[in-house]
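Changelog-adjacent note: as of this version, every example in the card shows the full chain rather than a window. The one below runs 289 residues end to end.
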Amino acid sequence: MKKIILFLLSINFLWASPPTEAYFSELLRDNGKVTKNTLKAYDVESGGMVYFDGEITLTGVLERADNEDMGDNYTALRFYPDNNVNLPFLYASSEMYLENQGASKYGDSWDFSGVEFDRLDFGVLLKNIEVKLPEPLNKRFLGVSAVRAEVTIRNYRFYGEGEAGREAYGDIVGFKALGDVETKYFSKNNYNSGNVSYNELQYNSKDNYVNIRDKANGKIIGKILKRDMIYNGGVLLSINGAGIDYMNYENFEKNWHEVFYLPPEAEDGKYAIHGFVHGSQVKLENGGY
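Full-length structure tokens:
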């Protein structure tokens, strides 16, 4: 029987490094509720991913922000359970093998009915397919937004190998706001206020403007004027993050790049344009080094 090692505390490769707490952590409560819980662990992969059937409905903070992983930025919708309610994570026992914690394996299936799990104390990364969320929780933007909410999560799963693989996932299939949406837009002077680092781009076109498109080679949604970038304080940020320096700079001119553009009159991310520009029209501020 294949044995699954639980705690690999000294591992070099990191799958992900999610934020340790919500940006709006003051919205969390000590009197949260679980109104439904049919979660049941049923399988584990050799890499340590543990899968759950069923659903859970509970209260906490739903938050949208950009996160960073291995130098690359990505938009993240995360749910942080209230302080007194639980989502399962890791294993409560210090035993090194699942079989010694009460788990049984029959063929390709696992029975986890005898296993006690610890509490998830960071945000679960959610995929949203069918739930309508209020703005700006429903889109990528230059800032962070959060709301107290009751959510229902399905297809819950996590890496079960300790801090080395610290990430949990699920699908959000139900949502009820329990308060007003709180939003913090990042400014031109402090656009790296969150858990990511954006690269500033410079103008590099022979034309007097650069088009911003809704997707690579897509519809034009705005223009970056040369005089605004060079003389009037326009700021263009690469969303790709620091990873573009050591992974993509050699092919920078050949690729489309996702950006936030803050025109001269835009003081913060509320008025930033989110889109794509071609690498032949701009350049990295540090030249890729």
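Structural remarks: The first strand starts at residue 34 and ends at 37.
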